[in-house]
Known about the structure:
The complex is a heterodimer. Chain A is an all-alpha fold.
Amino acid sequence: MSLSRRYTALDITYLAVVAAIAGVIFALTWNIYFIGSAVGGPIVARVISYGLWFIGAPLAATLIRKPGSAFLGEFLGALVETLIPTYGAFTNLVYGFAQGLASELAYALFRYRKYGVSQASLSGALAGFPCVALDALLFGEVYTAEVMVFITIAAVVSGAIYGSIAALAVKSVRR
Amino acid sequence: MIRPRPTTLFIYGLVITILAFISRRFEQLLILAVINAPVGIVLGFRKYSVIIGLFLVGLIGLFVNALIFSNVGTPVIEFYGLVVREGVLTAFINVTLRLLSILGATLVFVTQVNARDLIKSLECELGLPKTIAFATAVGLRMLSILERDLREVQLVRAERGFRKYPITPSDIGSFLRPLLSLGLERALWVGIAAELRGFSQRVSRRVGIKITYVDLIIYALLITQVFIVLIS
């Protein structure tokens, strides 16, 4: 592996920062999800909260700019959230793994050459698909197919919004 | 008292969660919930009562959602003109049992395992890459500092007349920027210190798993559940 693609100790500590921030955001998002769910139902709850659960990947990738950083950012955030622990319990780890892989795809599509706001937005949006698929496994009995379609759109839109916010935040800090 | 190894409980929790995800039938979910939920709730009742409380609150939302989206089949109960059909009860019970199994397995795990021991154990016993192990360990150490930073950001925002809790995406951005800025400044020096101590040369030492009788009981219980779920 070339030096530019190898993880240095500094990259790993940056990943640790992202994991800690993502873990805290993931844990706090449960409150937003419950409030949103109570006020606006399942779709509104997903629009306002799901993107926050996908924020680890764009944060890490925009910051570290190396292959695998999106996956690690999301997965480590989920691992920290599981160890805190939160309402999501062990499902966090399963969701984090799947969402991390999907987010990584956004950067892989650009051959790991671009780490801009649009890639971060795509990374957040792509995480919506495995998330809704896992939701279908977990809550499949409750939601109908039509509702799942709306939920998918809500998750993708939310992921895209928060993905771009994460990238802009990192860019403003690194400037 | 001999405690189970963190790795054992981690594997147990993860496998039970995956089983709960893939189980579709009532009998399968009932077995998982009956075995895991009581043990987890008894162990975690004091320390994690908030999570148990949230689970109970979440059940209300789950029932309302089932009532809106799965109210199909033969009517079961009629309450002030509201007809609750078979589909609602089936959906509600199945999802509740699934979530109960996951909650139970997680509570068993978090009450018996220290996070740092788990990271060490996963690295030495299961060969977790040092990238993940070190990042998680540093991340967990940074949590308390981050919590303090978060409170300071909230205080400053409140003093400037902004919302204390983030609601809009713009709020999230303004919370993220100072947290990232402070976190990266610390991470820079942690990274330099780690590199100076030869982090890149460090090789993870694999040790054999010493299984005690408690671990054996947990693995036996896990294998039994896997077989029951797959056969039933």
